Amino acid sequence: MSTSVATGIEQARKGVGVAGAGPRSGGPGAKRRGPSRGAATLVYFALPSLILLLLINLYPLLYAGMQSLRQGNLLALGPWIGFQNYVNVLTAGWFWDGALFTLIFTVVGVFGSWVIGLLFALLLRTKIPAGPAFKVLLLLPWVVPTVVSATAWNWLMATPQSPVQILIFAMTGHYVYFLADPTLAKITVCLFKVWISFPFMMMMMGSALASVDTNVYEAAKVDGASAWQTFRSITMPLISRSTFISWILMTIWCVNDFPTIFLLTGGGPANATSTLIVTAYRTVFQNFDTGSGTAIAFLMTAVLVVVSVVLYRQIRKVNIE
């Protein structure tokens, strides 16, 4: 990239359009306004609802915390054993198997849906035939309930009578059991997650792209920037805040995604697709070990808090002048 092009892109990111920079507000001499009395009034009105929500959510949280420190079941808390449930969980091989697949499932779900969603968002910004109708069709995987999508995918590929299996048998002479083989089941579950999640990313990225001032692109074009240079040096930095927010939300949804796994494979075959949330469900409601199950849930929560804080700090570091 030449020096003039790089300088022009930098000016474009700072808001210098084709006609030059406009007046900047909020200079050193500008007066800062403190919180208005109206804002304080709104806080007072919202305070009772906030207290009620806190109490509704605080009691189950504290009770679950007590369960994680006891050896109980669904009917009784049981005797106090301290952090032994956490020790048992962290030293169990099945926990780390579930944690590994949870990591794979989350990484593929977040970045796979983000890449596809961003590509479709960029495509929809161009003039394509029947653009609104095409956008509605792209939203269908997200709009349709997960139970319907999972049932459809099972019908398409789960049995020898499924259309995909019939097509594969006609081409190769043998069946491929996508949900019976551990490796293929993992791949299928991850692809299904990307399938039902990319419309959300498409909407997030589409909104972020729509908020970018077109004068920025015009300035970069005048300075001779290529399409790739414009995308890398202007588009990506300008939509980075929305990108990090979408990553945080999708990470939380992927880690806590129970219906996708349970409806498609039930965690099988041979627990190959059991994420931590499915493992916690089985531990509590099938093995009746509430202490270990809630310990898994709290460990998941701790990891999600750490990941969210890291990504949130990245949002705060984004500073587009």
From TrEMBL:
<feature type="region of interest" description="Disordered">
    <location>
        <begin position="15"/>
        <end position="35"/>
    </location>
</feature>
<feature type="transmembrane region" description="Helical">
    <location>
        <begin position="293"/>
        <end position="312"/>
    </location>
</feature>
<keyword id="KW-1133">Transmembrane helix</keyword>
<protein>
    <submittedName>
        <fullName>Sugar ABC transporter permease</fullName>
    </submittedName>
</protein>
<feature type="transmembrane region" description="Helical">
    <location>
        <begin position="42"/>
        <end position="62"/>
    </location>
</feature>
<keyword id="KW-1003">Cell membrane</keyword>
<keyword id="KW-0813">Transport</keyword>
<keyword id="KW-0812">Transmembrane</keyword>
<comment type="similarity">
    <text>Belongs to the binding-protein-dependent transport system permease family.</text>
</comment>
<keyword id="KW-0472">Membrane</keyword>
<feature type="domain" description="ABC transmembrane type-1">
    <location>
        <begin position="99"/>
        <end position="311"/>
    </location>
</feature>
<feature type="transmembrane region" description="Helical">
    <location>
        <begin position="136"/>
        <end position="156"/>
    </location>
</feature>
<feature type="compositionally biased region" description="Gly residues">
    <location>
        <begin position="17"/>
        <end position="29"/>
    </location>
</feature>
<dbReference type="Pfam" id="PF00528">
    <property type="entry name" value="BPD_transp_1"/>
</dbReference>
<feature type="transmembrane region" description="Helical">
    <location>
        <begin position="238"/>
        <end position="255"/>
    </location>
</feature>
<dbReference type="InterPro" id="IPR035906">
    <property type="entry name" value="MetI-like_sf"/>
</dbReference>
<feature type="transmembrane region" description="Helical">
    <location>
        <begin position="102"/>
        <end position="124"/>
    </location>
</feature>
<feature type="transmembrane region" description="Helical">
    <location>
        <begin position="74"/>
        <end position="96"/>
    </location>
</feature>
<dbReference type="InterPro" id="IPR000515">
    <property type="entry name" value="MetI-like"/>
</dbReference>
